[in-house]
Amino acid sequence: MSCRLLMWRWVALAGFALCLSGTAAAEDGVSPTESPVINHMPDAADEADDVVSDPWEPFNRAMFSFNKKTDQWVVKPVTKAYVKVLPEFVQTGIGNFIMYLKTPVNMLYFALQGNGHDFGAETARLFVNTFGLGVYDLASQQGIPMKDTNFGETMGVWGIGDGPYVVLPFLGGDSLRGTTGLVAVDYPVSIESHFPVAARNTATGVEFINRRRKLLPFDQAIEQASFDEYEFVRDGIVNRERARVQQLKDGRY
User: Fold this and answer.
1) How far is CA 208 from CA 87, 112, 214, in A?
2) Contact 2, 11 (CB under 8 A)
3) How far apart (Å, rounded) are the C-alpha atoms in residues 166 and 51?
4) Pair 149, 189: CB distance under 8 Å
5) pTM score over 0.85
6) pLDDT per residue over 64-92, tens digit each?
7) Which is nearest to 12 in space by CA: 212, 205, 233?
8) What is the Cα–Cα distance from 156 to 241, expressed in whole angstroms?
9) Which helix H or strand E contains 167, and what residues bound it?
10) How far is CA 41 from the centre of its chain?
11) How many structural domains are present in the chain?
């Protein structure tokens, strides 16, 4: 299995961080104050819709613990060293270039979703950011915000349910729909997957570290949490995915 697959959902704690803050939502074109996961407090009418199917919970909890320990012992120290050594503007440039490489794939998914607005926006981003060599996010400066999507969300727009929650070693947790989309489509169509082996592995490692560095500010809150961390992460990941799919259906993404 490719290193890219092993890293993509490495840290299941991402769901926890995304629920605590609107950071990732803002990067995806949703303002922090409008994040559907943060502001959504289920009532009796929609409580059933927020129930997460978790028939493999014992296995999932074991994998969650394994991934967390791997993160603590290996991933976090490497990421902290990365942040310490590289200037912030270099880290930003790397993150911009990673998203630049994903832009054509986002265009494909938005087209498959029937989302003409975001397809056009991603096309414009690709054109504008090419002048910045992909390292400078000139498009955002011109009022074309960064957005992201995947095949799991595309299947959700088509009406395919999220299915049971599953946590895999290294990949982390996601709905069965999201995991299937990642393995079956997201990786094969990615630009990096067609690089030579050495370049592909380097790009994969850098992309993963870049994703992990965005979660560093949340580590202390996670360590001090007194609730069931596994359940909170699980519910955060799945309900955020559901909210994103609904946004795509409503044309508000």
Assistant:
1) 18, 26, 10
2) no
3) 15
4) no
5) no
6) 999 999 999 999 999 999 999 999 999 99
7) 233
8) 9
9) strand 165-168
10) 22
11) 1
Distance CA 58, CA 54 (A): 9
**112 vs 122: CA distance, rounded Å:** 14
* Residue 135 CA: distances (Å) to CA of 24, 195, 247: 19, 19, 29
Residue 166's DSSP bridge partners are 174
Token pair 């991934």: residue: 67
Tokens representing 40 are: 């959504």
Tell me, what amino acid is at 206?
Answer: V
Buried-exposed string 57-88: b where 16+ CB fall within 10 A, e elsewhere: eeebbebbeebbeebeeebbeebeebeeeeee
Q: How far apart are CA 102 and CA 190, in angstroms?
A: 7
Is residue 129 within 8 Å of residue 97, measured between CB atoms? no
pLDDT on residue 118 = 94
Expressed as residue numbers, the domain containing 61 is 3-250
As given in the structure block, the two tokens for residue 196 are 């030579």
Is-contact 12 167, C-beta < 8 A? yes
Count CA atoms within 13 Å of residue 200 on its CB side. 14
CA 194, CA 182: separation in Å to the nearest integer? Answer: 16
pLDDT above 70 coverage of the chain, percent? 79
169-211 residue pLDDT tens: 988 999 999 999 999 999 899 988 888 888 888 888 898 899 8
Q: How far apart are CA 177 and CA 175, in angstroms?
A: 5
pLDDT tens-digit series, residues 110-135? 999 999 999 999 999 999 999 999 99
